[in-house]
Amino acid sequence: MAAPIKVVVTGAAGQIAYSLLYQIASGAVFGPDQPVYLHLLDIAPMMGVLEGVVMELADCALPLLTGVLPTANPEEAFKDVAAAFLVGAMPRREGMERKDLLSANVRIFKEQGQALDKVAKKDVKVLVVGNPANTNALICSKYAPSIPKENFTAMTRLDQNRAQSQLAAKLGIPVQDVKNVTIWGNHSSTQFPDASNAIAKINGVEKPVPAAINDDEYLKTTFVTTVQKRGAAVIAARKMSSALSAAKAASDHMRDWFLGTGDRWVSMGVVSDGSYGTPRDIVFSFPVTINNGKWKIVEGLTISDFARQMLDNTGKELVEEKQDALDVCKD
Asked: How would you classify residue 214: left for phi > 0, otherwise alpha for psi between -120 and 50, otherwise beta?
């Protein structure tokens, strides 16, 4: 058995964490031979609820779970962690302006960045799930200067999984037979779900998705808007936001980051180097491949005029969000 790794989950008493903790502790993320020691961070008023979660984790009798530390102190929570799932964030409430949401979250991610900088392992892999995820990841990285920028990522895997599932249903094939769907840009309604380089396996033969679906209008309209608005559709139906699927996507993202992507690529919000004409130094979702724990942006994809417009639009939103967040940092 390998030595246990320390893994932190923030917002640990919340809905997403409730689905996520079992996946991490069961071996679905770091592999069937990697023991984990869980650090659970939440705010002080949630410590009672968190105690119940700790009891349930014990009651799961999981062989890979070597210990659990519940805490409201970020420096305790981030001490020596190799992986961080930053799930906790201020949710948007009715009548709340985006700027208010941003300022609440900037404070949270500034504090967590500072704590990571001080006590986490220097090669910690950080996944931000709490929204606005791209900008939260950027702020967190800004306040953790001793940790490489490429170790801070934002989750767009839920969007990728949603897109993959829509295409598989449309083609009537199993979801694992669709690969290389891309989510570009922000995890918001400006994101661009792009099927133009996706591949489908149909009757054992690999075929480009656009040729297999043979309906460009669908791929530019219904497909894009369905994925963009899926989160809102779940809220409308469930009266709560996506938690089960968000937890599964967070597991997928971190598993691939630790264990590699094999013969497919995945979407991750990563710090932009200007690839594909995107603005630099924002956290932008790109198609990436991962090897030995290092991600690399997929190069050489053709960007159509339609795609160019979509990339520019989501890039513009991210630049504005970044500026708003930096303004809040100065306050």
From this structure: left
In whole angstroms, what is the distance from residue 55 CA to residue 60 CA? 9
Q: Which of 187, 248, 253, 255 is catalytic?
A: 187
CA triple 69-71-74, angle to 5 deg? 115
- Amino acid letter at 34? Q
Residue ranges with strand state E in 55-198: 65-71, 83-86, 125-128, 152-154, 178-179, 182-184, 192-194
Rounded to whole angstroms, the Cα distance separating 298 from 252 reads 19
Q: Which residues are annotated as a binding site for NAD(+)?
A: 42, 105, 129-131
Active-site residue, 253 included = no
Question: CB within 8 A of 125, min separation 6: which ones?
Answer: 82, 83, 84, 151, 153, 254, 257, 258, 293
Q: Per the confidence metrics, is the pTM higher than 0.85? A: yes
Cβ(72)–Cβ(43) below 8 Å: yes
How many whole angstroms separate alpha carbon 71 and alpha carbon 180? Answer: 39
Model pLDDT for residues 52-95, shown as the tens digit of each residue:
999 999 999 999 999 999 999 999 999 999 999 999 998 777 67
* Residue whose tokens read 């993202």: 253
